[in-house]
Automatic annotation (TrEMBL):
Keyword set, alphabetical order: Ammonia transport, Membrane, Transmembrane, Transmembrane helix, Transport
Localization terms from the record: Membrane
Keyword rRNA-binding in annotation: no
PROSITE patterns: AMMONIUM_TRANSP (PS01219)
Listed GO CC annotations: plasma membrane
A single MF term (Gene Ontology): ammonium channel activity
Membrane topology: Multi-pass membrane protein
Protein name: Ammonium transporter AmtB-like domain-containing protein
Keyword match Amino-acid biosynthesis: no
Family statement drawn from the similarity comment of this UniProt entry: Belongs to the ammonia transporter channel (TC 1.A.11.2) family.
Provenance organism: Ophiocordyceps camponoti-rufipedis
Transmembrane regions listed in the UniProt entry: 32-53, 65-83, 117-139, 151-171, 191-207
Domain Ammonium transporter AmtB-like, first and last residues per copy: 34-224
């Protein structure tokens, strides 16, 4: 049975050394394994979304959509490490946004976060997968009308300005929605509502798809729904 975390693990608390104490005594292996497997499953959803969108688009956009869905992991992975996790899940901050106390994953190793059963670093990995899949869900708006490089820049900026604050409101104990209380266990707000409105706004800004008027305004047929 795991020992309750007592916050006295020396430099491990500061995120600089895991050798200061045996951190395994604070957490149960079953809990850690479950969340690790869950993180991998969410990661596998991201290329799944890309293949799904590529099958619903025209053939010429299929590769672009798969590529963008995978690049979201790279872009948001960097953003999450850089300051995304700190903005969304730092222990200090106001009711609307976290601070940069965990910038670059500083002090992000041993202390519990999200649950008394989970260490900060594993919780960061799990939430990072949700942060990565959210822009991937909205990326279908790029099909036939957007370019890859601007989309990557948009992912980084949008995650910082939109996703991280909404995740903070909803899931961080300091957030105003969390204190109402608002219960969102599966990401209906930070993930699905935000990605849906993002896709709508992106579509409106990019305009009609290439060749839309020459097709008589008719919807395109998906080239491979089974993909």
């Amino acid at each position: 049975m795991a020992t309750a975390y007592n916050g006295t693990s020396g430099t491990a608390d500061d995120g600089s050394s895991t050798g200061a104490t045996n951190l395994n005594v604070f957490y149960d292996t079953g809990h850690l394994t479950f969340l690790t497997v869950s993180s991998v499953l969410v990661l596998l959803m991201i290329p799944g979304v890309g293949f799904f969108y590529s099958g619903l688009a025209r053939r010429k956009s299929a590769l672009q959509l798969v590529l963008l869905s995978m690049l979201s992991v790279a872009v948001i992975g960097f953003q999450w490490f850089f300051w995304g996790y700190s903005l969304a899940f730092s222990r200090t901050g106001n009711a609307f946004l976290g601070d940069l106390s965990q910038f670059g994953l500083m002090k992000t190793i041993a202390q519990p976060n999200g649950s008394s059963f989970l260490p900060d670093i594993l919780f960061c990995l799990y939430q990072g997968m949700f942060a990565s899949i959210t822009p991937a869900l909205a990326i279908g708006a790029v099909a036939d009308r957007g370019r890859i490089l601007p989309a990557l820049v948009f992912m980084f900026v949008w995650s910082t300005a939109v996703y991280d604050p909404i995740a903070y409101w909803t899931w961080n104990p300091n957030g105003w929605l969390y204190k109402l209380p608002s219960y969102d266990f599966a990401g209906g707000g930070p993930v699905h509502i935000s990605s849906g409105t993002c896709a709508l706004a992106y579509s409106l800004m990019l305009g009609r798809r290439t060749g839309y008027s020459s097709n008589g305004g008719l919807p395109y047929r998906p080239h491979s729904p089974s993909a």
